[in-house]
Amino acid sequence: MLEVSNLSLHYGRHIALHQLSLKVGKGETVVILGANGAGKSSLLKSIAGLTKPDAGALISFDKRVITGTPAHDVLEAGIALVPEGRGVFGDLTVEENLALGAYAKRARQGARDRQDFVYSLFSKLRDRRSQYVNTMSGGEQQMVAIGRALMSKPDLLMLDEPSLGLAPVVVGELFASLARIKAAGLALLIVEQNVKMTLSIADRGYLAEAGRITGEGTAQALMSDAAVQRAFLGAAN
Amino acid sequence: MLVTALLSGLVLGGTYALVAMGLTLQYGIARIMNLAYGEVVIAAAFLAYTLFTAWGISPVAGLLIAAPAGFALGYVIYGVMMRPLVARAWDKASLEIDSILATFGLLFVIQGVLLVVFGANFTSYSYLNVAVNVLGTTLAANRLLAFVLAAVFAGGLYLLLTRTLWGTALRAVSVAPGSAPLVGIDVDRAARMAFALGGALAAAGGVVISMYQTFTATSGVVFTMKALIVVIMGGVGNILGALSAGLILGVVETFVATYLDPGLTLAATYAIFLVVLLWRPSGLFGRIAR
User: Fold this and answer.
1) β-strand A79-82 against A156-160: which pairing, if any?
2) Which domain range does residue A187 map to?
3) Under 8 Å CB-to-CB from B91, ≥6 apart: which residues?
4) pTM of the full predicted structure?
5) ipTM of the assembly?
6) CATH number of the domain enclosing A220
7) At residue A47, does pLDDT exceed 50?
8) Does a structural domain hold residue A237?
9) Is residue A36 in some structural domain?
10) How much of chain A is helix, strand and coil, in % rounded to 5?
């Protein structure tokens, strides 16, 4: 469904991404593992249309070329991004954030049903729908960010470090919710530091290092891969 | 005398609020500091004057012409003048400087045209200049109408921004422009709409002002400055803040003129401005688009 090939990106002299290629199939959950500075956020931003990749890149979604398409049109094509730091509208209420999630033309119809789905996923949001988002906890704001992205009726949901800065018990709830979103048929592309949790819900994964893809495999294979264990899972032996 | 001063203060403040609401949209959402704002106000005042004196069209009907014309003017100015500045701006600060310089030039272009067409004389016309009884004191009907119109525009704008998805999207651009594209909002288009809507409010303000005040081709800068003070007092992008701050400014000016000395009016205005700037730089009501 999503096909990225030959994606490079540089900021001045710094090369953030180097001839990177990856695929996400329909309904598939794919994780990108890599240390800080591996270019994972740049990758998601390039796909979302928030940064312009270097010439020669090809990004297509459902056979449609979306390279260089502005972010608001990428969303219309069916790709939603929950950015690092969440990017919620803090001065607006939960309800307003969710309503704006359905601002895209593709999302206007059936917005009410999707709002019910979001509230069933995150029941806390229903209770707090009139609350201003910047008065909420990090975990609750992450629910708003994910709920808002779901409101746009995406076929592919991209999440950039969704568990960053959240308490362990909240992280557990978050991944339970992501599993339910996956079960609803959405494709997920996740960049995460919490490797164990992410691999447990993922189908496939890529290893990223200094802007390049250095390995890939099924989630199961990656889980038992010695290099992955050493780098991310803190295996003692 | 107290009630009289309070009423004329509220009338004046209502007009200030109406004029400031357009500027707060342009500055808060489109992020353009428009120094030519007052010139659009005065151009609309002359339009209302011409419609009334040449064709006998009442200012209330004139609003139906001036407001759409102001919208169109804002839409074109944004597309032609502002978009290139926005496209090349590094950040918010550089856009602010560029837009101040560009609109400073535009100020003199519009003012020059007005001077050539209408001359430098004080201009006014007599519309609904009859006394009506309000709360035991008398008030000119045109002033009462000016207040009612300001209230209608403020209420309409507030409902538009808070109760419609389109208006909520404009507020989203105001509070987090970086996140707006994530929900499919075209920020450039939203900014253009906000700028145009600001132009419509400037024009409406000009028509309302022309109903009860004397104006000249060069008095635009006064309205830009007062609107700017109200915008900063109320919190940039904050409609209810602009409304409250406008009313406060009008009442304070009128009280100072009535009880102290008319010559101190401007001094009082800027004293309030300085106090707000020093102690509440984000405005009396916060920099929030609620």
Assistant:
1) parallel
2) 2-232
3) none
4) 0.91
5) 0.90
6) 3.40.50.300
7) yes
8) no
9) yes
10) 40, 25, 35
